[in-house]
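Researcher: I'd like a candidate sequence for this fold, 456 residues long. If you have to choose between options at a position, lean toward the conservative one.
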């Protein structure tokens, strides 16, 4: 499970959030704390909830002691994620006592209340109105029109210079290992004009990078009965590419029309970066996953993308130890990775998830075999990453500054997404830099995952 880093979690004394939202706080103002777990899509839900609450007159507390109640936005994708969510709920109960649960694990209210019967309410994912109703019942609002002013961008839990832009909810796929459609429902795309308007407001507020997210980004708009084109994601990408800031695509399912996104990347409209969850490469494993089983055609697509946009960065995630995975199937995955030469790779060991159809498959892989295969996979992925980064030494790059401290500036180029990829460190000439600056650097050193550079 991906968890928000400590400096982005209000329950871990987020000083920036406290400074931004609590500078002017009348003593009578009710306050709410937020613990946000899970993926960036859940983080966007947390931001929306906090924005609504702030507009209603609630203060946002950066610690348990200052909160009249605490919302825990949970993850329920894997059993390990469920365990962490229950632990976070327990911590909030111990530290504050008044807890409202929402998010993916909230789709199983009996599971939550069975472990923590004293929670005030349990709501499911993106049920914003029910969360607000629960907060109203626990802590009545007390709005003050002279204080409760919100910026156009709303409350953000990410640094000011980048923001996640969620374009749809739900998913129409039926992957056997995934329960997201059960928790979040079928694909429901936001109107294109609403997405573009939000993006423009974020840009006006100082955001320099938009990270486009959904459960299936390339399926955006295909749920509309009167859609203006066969692939509305292309229309959206064109619109976003005209705003004039970085636009990065995540969770892009490899449909054929993805090849039409790549020329936009080559022309500079959107960043030359694709995050595509391939999951595996052996056709039999993919069939058991209920995923498309055309690994050879995928290699052809990758070659076509690179031919159209040589600077493209490809990122993906994989599952090892899926039920029935043989040594030959795993070796096929390693061989495929050798051919694909992906730039950024993540890997997970298969876990059973309550409600997933993969649980009933035969021939589950022993834990020790899963761990051994994961180590072999990561060893190969690390070697590919190290070689690709070494090839960038001596090149110049435009980088976005994420943070600056006494040791240097932490930056990223178009090839690095925040929190999941490596960084580019600038340790000289950084004193005048601030987060959100765009500067030119020359790369002079590489490691397995990170780069070091000199400001030009």
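Model: Candidate sequence:
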């Amino acid at each position: 499970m991906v968890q928000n880093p400590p400096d982005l979690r209000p329950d871990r004394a987020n000083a920036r959030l406290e400074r931004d939202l609590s500078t002017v706080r009348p003593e009578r103002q009710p306050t709410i704390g937020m613990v946000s777990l899970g993926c960036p899509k859940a983080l966007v839900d947390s931001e929306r909830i906090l924005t609504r609450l702030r507009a209603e007159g609630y203060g946002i507390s950066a610690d348990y002691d200052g909160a009249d109640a605490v919302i825990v936005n949970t993850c329920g994708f894997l059993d390990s994620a469920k365990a962490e969510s229950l632990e976070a709920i327990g911590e909030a109960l111990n530290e504050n006592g008044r807890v409202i649960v929402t998010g993916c694990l909230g789709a199983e209210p009996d599971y939550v209340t069975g472990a923590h019967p004293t929670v005030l309410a349990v709501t499911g994912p993106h049920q914003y109105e029910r969360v607000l109703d629960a907060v109203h019942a626990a802590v009545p609002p007390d709005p003050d029109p002279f204080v409760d002013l919100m910026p156009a961008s709303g409350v953000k839990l990410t640094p000011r210079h980048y923001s996640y832009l969620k374009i749809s909810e739900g998913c129409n796929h039926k992957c056997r290992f995934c329960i997201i459609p059960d928790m979040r429902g079928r694909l429901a795309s936001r109107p294109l004009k609403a997405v573009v308007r939000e993006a423009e407001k974020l840009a006006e507020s100082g955001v320099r990078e938009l990270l486009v997210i959904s459960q299936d980004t390339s399926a955006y708009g295909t749920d509309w009965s009167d859609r203006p084109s066969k692939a509305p994601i292309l229309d959206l990408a064109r619109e976003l590419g005209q705003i004039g800031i970085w636009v990065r695509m995540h969770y892009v399912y490899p449909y054929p029309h993805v090849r039409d996104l790549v020329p936009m990347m080559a022309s500079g409209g959107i960043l030359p970066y694709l995050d595509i969850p391939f999951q595996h490469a052996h056709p039999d494993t993919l069939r058991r996953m209920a995923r498309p089983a055309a690994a050879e055609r995928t290699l052809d697509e990758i070659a076509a993308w690179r031919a159209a946009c040589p600077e493209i960065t490809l990122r993906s995630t994989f599952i090892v130890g899926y039920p029935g995975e043989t040594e030959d199937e795993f070796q096929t995955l390693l061989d495929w990775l050798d051919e694909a030469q992906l730039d950024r790779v993540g890997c997970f060991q298969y876990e059973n998830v309550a409600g997933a159809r993969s649980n009933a498959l035969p021939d589950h892989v022993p834990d020790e075999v899963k761990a051994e295969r994961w180590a072999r996979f990561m060893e190969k992925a690390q070697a590919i990453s190290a070689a690709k980064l070494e090839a960038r030494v001596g090149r110049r790059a435009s980088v976005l500054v994420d943070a600056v401290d006494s040791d240097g500036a932490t930056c990223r180029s178009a090839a690095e997404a925040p929190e999941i990829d490596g960084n580019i460190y600038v340790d000289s000439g950084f004193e005048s830099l601030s987060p959100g600056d765009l500067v030119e650097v020359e790369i002079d050193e590489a490691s397995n995952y990170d780069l070091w550079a000199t400001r030009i």
